[in-house]
Amino acid sequence: MAKWYSKLFGRRTLVPEPAITIESIAEQRSQLASTMDDADVFLKKLGLDSLRVHVTATNAMGIATFYGCVKFISNQISSLPYNVYRSNGKHGAKKQYDHPLNYVLETRFNKNMGPLVARRSMLLNCLVHGWSVSEIKRDNNRRTIEIIPYPCSEVYILHDRTSDSYFFEIPHLNKRLSQDDVVFLKDLDFDGAKGTSIISWQSRTIEIDLTTRQHAQQFFANRTFMGGFLEHPAIANVKDETAAKEIKDRVNDALLEDGLAILPPNVKYHSMGMSPNDSRLLEIFNMSSKDIAKIWNLSLAMIGDTEVQSSWGTGVEAMYIILTNSVLIPIARQIEEEINYKCFRTDELRGGFYTSHNFKGLLRGDFKTQSEHLYRMVTGGIYMPDEGRAYDDKGPLPKGTGARAYMNGSMTPLDLIDEVKLQKSKNSKKNGAADGRELSSSGSERSEGDAE
Question: Taking Cα atoms as reference points, which of 326, 289, 333 lies closest to residue 68?
């Protein structure tokens, strides 16, 4: 009895007798891909070796995990308080509100950008492209009044080998800037001259993710998971091709319209492709997300993956401390070093001026931990009450009472501790003498009573 077979995926060509058996389908299913395979073998087993993608910054940012990591890191650092300070030696450091650079860092980077947007733009270019260039504009006194970030696609780096100096060409603005007139941030690189993009370092990891997603897009094309052939035992010869084609068209039309096909009587469907579960697409996406998160040294919980519940609760504070120390501080440190060197005059650097990010907000823990810390610092005489109130943006206490340091116990002002101790000693001696007189008088009264 003759049978007809017709592929449902893609082509509409009728093949009366394909050279395929149920055994060959079983063999195909046994050749499942594993994330433990070599990259080329992995893609070949999945049938993705014919798919090729060119990894760029744009399509890498199209990966949810990659985009989430970049956005998380850039937002965290850009949101931190960043100010100008001046070191006073033994007396610590004070914030310099009146310095022009402090206005730039805290209020307005340039006429078109606030601090958060400008700093995030600088970091986005550095994290994705490997380097970032921002022009420094100065007034007549050589003080920084604006910092303007430029996208990497609009800047060309020129190296003068004679002087070993770098220049930055911006053609659309007809500008050529020297290295002293730009904030030049760099990501990892072997020579340290120009940062290399993380997309270049990890192109294979990102390529597997993009290729798999391209395959998944084709896999779910036409709103169907089906991939196989139909079997109809009633058709005896090739002359019945019209009836076979009619059945096939009915199935295809049903899939295209509502995603559900009802087979006519005596028609059987044999799966030839792999289901989403068999193709390990979910496993691949899982592994890809973890690998990309490892590139940025982030936990998936930080970018919204709550599948692993143990990552939340008491572990969040510890994760933020690790994140701050291992990821955020090194990036912030490079920004500080570059701006300190480029945006201050020599006399200001010698006078103790510098910039610094405030990480206390990320490291202070939950509300309870923060409250206990402030209480101990104030009652231990380390912080003055007004300094503790400043953490919650509260003003100083009236009449200057919060501008003094206090010690725990009786909360005695530090400058009065010796006087208070001396007074207590005198009081205790007086009390002791009075107690002695009372004891002696009561003793004499008892003696007279006993005599009577």
Answer: 289
Could you say which DSSP state residue 198 is in?
H
CA distances from 272 to 10, 48, 179 (A): 13, 17, 61
Residue 350 has a pLDDT of 93
Alpha-carbon span 46 to 43, nearest angstrom: 5
pLDDT in tens, 287-309: 788 889 889 988 887 777 766 54
Strand partners, 229: 7, 270
Residues in the chain, overall count? 452
**Percent helix, strand and coil across the chain, each rounded to 5?**
55, 15, 35
User: 131-170 burial string, b = 16+ CB within 10 Å, else e?
Assistant: bbbbbbeeeeeeebebbbbbebeebeeeeeeeeeebbbeb
Please state, in angstroms and rounded to a whole number, the distance separating the CA atoms of residues 73 and 326. Answer: 12
Q: Given the DSSP bridges, would you call strands 93-95 and 82-87 parallel, antiparallel or unpaired?
A: antiparallel
- Are 230 and 252 within 8 A, CB to CB? no
Half-sphere exposure of 221 (CA within 13 A, CB side): 10
Q: What is the mean pLDDT of residues 342-354?
A: 95
> Is the pTM of the predicted complex or chain greater than 0.85?
no
Q: Dump pLDDT digits (tens) for 180-239.
A: 999 999 999 998 888 999 999 998 889 888 877 777 776 665 444 555 666 766 554 445
Apex 201 CA angle, 290 and 304, nearest 5: 25
Q: Write the pLDDT tens digit of every residue in 407-417.
A: 766 666 666 76
Model pLDDT, residue 174 = 94
Return the bridge partners of 144, or none: 138
Query: 47-61 burial by CB neighbour count: b if 16+ within 10 A, else e?
Result: bbeeeebebebebbe
Average pLDDT over residues 244-262: 68
Which token pair is 282?
Answer: 């979910």
Give the separation between CA 166 and CA 189, rounded to whole angstroms: 16
pLDDT in tens, 313-338: 456 667 778 888 899 999 999 999 99
* Burial bucket for residue 324 (CB in 10 Å: 0-12, 13-18, 19+): middle
Q: 43, exposed or middle or buried, with CB in 10 Å at 0-12, 13-18, 19+? A: buried
Q: Is 412 left (phi over 0), alpha (psi -120 to 50) or beta?
A: beta
Residues 6+ apart with CB under 8 A from 59: 53, 210
106 phi/psi in degrees, rounded to 5: -105, -30
